[in-house]
Amino acid sequence: MARSLASRMAFATADFTVREHQHWQKTARTYEKTWGFLTRQCDRALLNAVQCQQGCSLVDVAAGPCYVAEAAAKAGAVVTALDFSKNMLDLAQARVSAEMASHTVRFIEADAARMPLEAMSVDVVVCSFGVPHFAEPEAFFAEAFRVLRPGGCLGFTVWGYSFLTEVLQLIHDAVWAHGNPHVSLPPAPPFFRFSQARTTKDTLKRFGFSNVQCQRVPVCWEVHDARETFQTFRGWHGQTGALLAGQNTEQLAAIEAAIAVSTEAKRSRPSAPCQLQFDSVLTTERVQLHLAYLGLELGTRGSEEDQPKELLERLILANCADLWQTKGLPLKRLPTIQSAAELAKEFTRLQAADDRTLADEYKRLEIPTQVEAPTKRRELLQRLQRVAAWRVLPVHELRKDCQELRVSTSSEEREELFQRLISSAWGPQMPPPPPPKK
């Protein structure tokens, strides 16, 4: 049953982030009564794992009510709380300001995938149970890597699989027994994807993190009124909430009664609360920037072949922002350091190529052009470099360029976007693709 449940929590779509934003805007005031008392149980373990200490700069991403941010500030950290829900941040700012003598937390309304922070500017990035709510967790990991200094640490928590078997299973069993289990559910990312240590480690290593550590942190949900379990999930926006919302009145009454009976069974004695025991998964990883991660070897300075290596070393060690401005590399838009390495090499190769080689490459791309001779090389080089960047930019960045250049397409396929940009950016646009066959 657990596997069938997990399989229903399948894929993210474009409107997932919109649904998440609407939910958090609407439920900001009720979070403490529903989930806040659970997530706070992991705050101390999270801050200890990332070695939060006096004077360190820490960013709490998807900060919500800012429990982690507040605890970090009380420990002496210089804290930034970042969330895309203005209502959440407004409530958190009012609460934190009232509880703390000094205003040591900076609040920023922003998306986890596009943090308005300088590269290599913070020591710690934390995220308390926010990752399962991101449409593109990889975009968050890439941003965390970008803003962390060498030696910096990323830490985040997610629900463990026992949350599925101990809590969600209780609800879904009641639905299967008394309701309609085949309700159409809104598409969403795999909720327990990063509950698996192997998946987490493999994903994070692609973004340059090393020494990935996963540990389990126990959580206990103490329910005094057995009806509380049903009510908590009835108002939830996720797929379990959608499953309950799809039941009729009679089914809901039967489901609520069944869940109350199952919850009551967790009470050890009449005066004790019902205890739902499960765990969370706490992951920490450190940024260790070095050329070995890129599979490169340092060579003798000065030769043309060493230029990409020197460029990458400067990128890795200190000068991401400067290189982005002076070399034309769109580093802030690239998903990984590896893609920056590939693009740096290609830029260097193009800059060293003679005019004929550039013209031949340009011709193979079939880019419409009418460039005057005096500016031909510079124009060809700029366009070829832009094409090289398109080859490695993530899909969401390609779509941004399509919008900027007014290239008509609704495609989410990389190759389709790439070809349309090449064919339309400097000439007449391609006709829109035909509608899909029914």
UniProtKB/TrEMBL annotation:
MF-aspect GO terms: S-adenosylmethionine-dependent methyltransferase activity
InterPro entries assigned to the protein according to its UniProt record, in alphabetical order: Methyltransf_11, SAM-dependent_MTases_sf
Pfam families for this protein: Methyltransf_11
CDD domains: AdoMet_MTases
Annotated ranges, domain Methyltransferase type: 59-154
Protein name per Swiss-Prot or TrEMBL: MenG protein
